[in-house]
Design a protein that fits this description.
This protein has helices at 110-118, 127-141, 145-160, 175-180, 182-187; strands at residues 4-5, 17-24, 32-33, 37-44, 48-51, 54-57, 62-66, 72-75, 87-94, 123-125, 165-167. The termini are close together. The chain has 188 residues and is an alpha+beta fold. Strands 2-9-4-7-10-11 form a 6-stranded antiparallel β-sheet, covered by helices on one side. It has a 3-stranded antiparallel β-sheet with strand order 6-5-8, with no helix packed on it. The protein has a two-stranded parallel ribbon with strand order 1-3.
Length: 188
Amino acid sequence: MKLTLEKQSPMAATELVACEIVRGVDFGCVWHHHPEMEITLVKRGGTERWVGDSLTPLSPGDLVLLGSDLPHDFRNDRSAGRVSKNLEAIVVQFMPHILGPDSLLHPSMRGLQRLFQRARLGLEIRGATRRRAIRMLERIVRTKGLPRVILLLELLHDLSGSKELREIASPGFDAAIGATSSDRIGKV
């Protein structure tokens, strides 16, 4: 399996925060990476998620924050005999420098800077934080423009202070290496 660079969503041309609801028999992606950060909520369906060097079974309510250029794939494996035809997920993508190129250097943004650093390995969102985040994602889906950006910032602020986030990929996993050595990682 070869790692591919996903092209930017056409929605990114008009929205700082791209948001879509994925429905069908698969997630419409392959093992890939992209410069945008991504929040994915699996509402139903799917068999597994691959993030970095971690393969995890999917269940409804699975919620992750993925850092920029982190290789990943969400699957609905038909060969596993568990395929769901009613898959549904919310996918939100945004650039890490959404507030400007030097915004994360400001002292008031240290929490967000730490969150984005941790997201380089992918973060599974759990507990009460997950429940709050799901409610915010449901609101993000229904908005556009500046209100969507504001809701995303509120969500990121909540995540930056949470102790209910768990790294997904191994501590030694390097997304830069994964993005340049796709054949080796794909075989794993």
